Amino acid sequence: MAAGRRRATLATVAASAGVSVATVSKVLNGRSDVAPATRALVLSLLAQHDYVAPPQRRGEPAASDTVEVEFDDDLNPYSTEIVQGAVEAGAELDASIVVSIRRSADRTGGWARGLVAAGRRALVAVTGELTGGQLGALSRARLPLVVIDPLNLPRTRVTSVGSTNFAGGLAATQHLLGLGHRRVAHLGGPATAACTQARLHGYRAAMEAAGVSVPPGYVRTAHFHYQDGVEGGAALFDLPEPPTAIFAGCDEIALGVLEAARARGLRVPEDLSIVGFDDTQIARMASPPLTTVRQPLREMGAVAVRTALRLAAGERIESHHVELATELVVRGSTAPVTTGDPTTGASAATRVDAAARG
């Protein structure tokens, strides 16, 4: 290589070929999952650019891209699904995935620099509350960021991956209305979370389209935790006219509502129908199995990692926000109103009322 000439990088070759850095890496490593025409083009450009792999110290393993997947709360069934998708994408792209838990208060001034010093190429933050200062620190450290299902973000362009939360809330509520329920409540997550607001808007849209009013106290927000479902469900059952169906903001909340119903002697789904959101493993293990809105969590984790690595390679991405489709999965926790006037849900409501009175 001529003196003073800059060493060609994988990103240089990838840009010339119009492919991702991961594809160039696969060609260099002799991977078979690259189309012959693409392989020939990449090999030609590697020679054209006089590409030379960075020297590797004796005894050290070959370097690979490392993406940090950072959660701001303890791992749970929701986050486990995302990790699974991230790890699968990492294996596909020959990248390492590091999983960490870091509360918002721990993201101090040296946080971003520490990630770079540790060799991270990009950061995937899950349901994080990121401040303008924290985003600025990542920008100064030149560390690409992708956020999954953000709770809230400052008014700036941040790359994020989510799901069709409005459509999911709409489908969940329409399912309950289609079963004859009219006293349908919504027990959601944090009121300021973008996903909570979208699911709530879907719920309200379905209720309004069906000409069904939402009584006072029928919409409650808390956190995405089991205990919030227990307490929120109990509060709904204490209303003068308790609901005969509840759309919960996540599967954990829904399981809490199941427990609150059991404590009141309510049968699910005979007396009370419940719909969750996420379709995590606990939805399938619940008794009865939980009707829920499937959020493609593994796919969200995989898309976030792929996008983060594209940003790290200097590639231009098509959109700064991607929404993956949700799908209603009907199981055993929902059923039609048993008897009585289908416009009022009289039979189920009578039993719920009796249970609420204790």
From TrEMBL:
| InterPro entries (alphabetical) | HTH_LacI (IPR000843), LacI/GalR-like_sensor (IPR046335), Lambda_DNA-bd_dom_sf (IPR010982), Peripla_BP_I (IPR028082)
Low complexity bias spans: 346-358
Which controlled-vocabulary keywords does the entry list?
DNA-binding, Transcription, Transcription regulation
User: What residue spans carry the Polar residues bias annotation?
Assistant: 335-345
Q: Which SUPFAM superfamilies match?
A: lambda repressor-like DNA-binding domains (SSF47413), Periplasmic binding protein-like I (SSF53822)
Q: Region annotation Disordered: residue ranges?
A: 335-358
Q: Which residues form the HTH lacI-type domain?
A: 8-62
GO molecular function per UniProt: DNA-binding transcription factor activity; transcription cis-regulatory region binding
> What name appears for this protein in its UniProt entry?
LacI family transcriptional regulator
